[in-house]
Design goal:
The chain is of the alpha/beta class. It is 46% helix and 14% strand.
Length: 288
């Protein structure tokens, strides 16, 4: 530590003066300065470069666990604790999220259904269980509201819609998009909270028209829809929830969901695969 301090201060003070004050010899300092870096130090330097690249490519969204799995996928030799230690030492951090806003509203006399999901968030295949919810995003032009539909098998966002107003049409657009993309079989369980948008007649009719079975969380219990809540938390932490304009928010949300989250982001509950890769790999395994 004393030699490192001398190296940092040698442009401001003479080396001999610094050595005398710190009680070391100038010859010892020069020997330390000219010594070749250790093999361990070189390995850490190389690994740090890979860490910084992976962190940058994740748009600063990954913490140490996902950086570690990303490097493993690239066949970069590393250990989980070593990656964590280097990221902590050099202040390489994942983005953090900000605030909270309630989007669930209830209307008197609305018909509710039972919770058929019962927090069983791991179906055996795709298109067995979907979960839906709504969240907010702030822009300098005002609020934007995002509705999503997630396939719980792969945590993939199979339908979504974003609008400046929270109306019954918003989740309907997300559900229609999901139906168009996935063509789900009859009997699929569709789970949501007890927001008035999901209890509306139009929404329930659309579910019925496609043979879906409605399920709703218990009143005021966010854990009953935890995977979608986790997605929203990830979105706001990694992408942010404040945008310059509404058009900017639309572009960024499209990029986050369709380019990043569904196809690239490593998910801890999916063996650190992306939702698309997880579906593809397990579909091949079933066919085999």
């Amino acid at each position: 530590m004393r030699y490192q301090f001398i190296q940092q201060m040698c442009r401001q003070h003479r080396v001999r003066v610094l050595c005398r004050v710190l009680g070391v010899s100038p010859s010892g300092y020069y020997e330390w300065r000219d010594r070749a870096p250790s093999e361990r130090s070189c390995e850490n330097t190389r690994l740090l470069i890979y860490i910084r690249i992976a962190h940058r490519l994740s748009r600063e969204r990954y913490g140490s666990p996902r950086i570690y799995h990303e490097l493993l996928a690239q066949s970069v030799p590393c250990g989980r604790h070593r990656v964590e230690r280097l990221m902590r030492k050099y202040h390489i951090l994942a983005k953090r999220r900000r605030r909270y806003r309630v989007t669930t509203t209830n209307k008197p006399g609305m018909e509710w259904v039972k919770d058929l999901l019962d927090r069983a968030f791991t179906p055996e295949r795709v298109n067995m269980k979907w979960a839906a919810d709504i969240t907010y995003l702030w822009t300098q032009e005002g609020w934007m509201y995002l509705a999503v539909v997630m396939d719980l098998y792969s945590r993939r966002i199979v339908g979504w819609a974003i609008e400046p107003y929270l109306t019954d049409d918003l989740p309907l657009k997300a559900l229609r998009a999901a139906i168009q993309v996935r063509r789900p079989p009859k009997g699929l369980i569709h789970h949501s909270d007890r927001g008035s948008q999901y209890g509306s007649k139009r929404y329930r009719d659309l579910l019925g028209d496609h043979g879906m079975v409605s399920s709703m969380s218990e009143k005021g219990d966010c854990w009953d829809n935890a995977p979608v809540e986790s997605f929203f938390s990830t979105l706001k932490r990694e992408q942010g929830e404040v945008f310059e304009t509404r058009d900017h928010a639309r572009r960024e949300i499209f990029d986050f969901i369709e380019v990043w989250y569904n196809r690239q982001r490593r998910h801890s509950t999916l063996e650190y695969s992306s939702p698309a890769d997880y579906e593809s790999r397990h579909a091949l395994a079933i066919e085999a």
